[in-house]
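Usage

Read records sequentially. Each one opens with the input sequence:
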Amino acid sequence: MIVTIVTFKLPQPTTLAEITKTFQSTAPKYQGIPGLLRKNYFMSEDGSRAGGIYVWKSRADADRVYTAEWKSFVESKYGSLPSIEYLHSPVMVDNREGSISVAA
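and closes with the structure output:
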């Protein structure tokens, strides 16, 4: 599994209520994407930075999404280009499902 942390600076600080509305408008875009296991949106406590934490089956699945077109979409929506950090996730604990997953 691969975890990516996508971060972008907001042009001006925002509130949790405002960013929640924005995130709700983009969330359906991520449903059903092949290889995407989970996405958590986030905003920094001071409201100046936001992004997503994604869990992917593979790096190839993530790379199919993080295209130039996707980066342009993020920039147009939030006002800055995203930075993407890739991390290996060999084991994942899911307390909702009561499971522990080990990457293949």
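Summary fields computed downstream for this record:
- The chain has a mean pLDDT of 95.
- Helices lie at 16-26, 59-65, 68-78.
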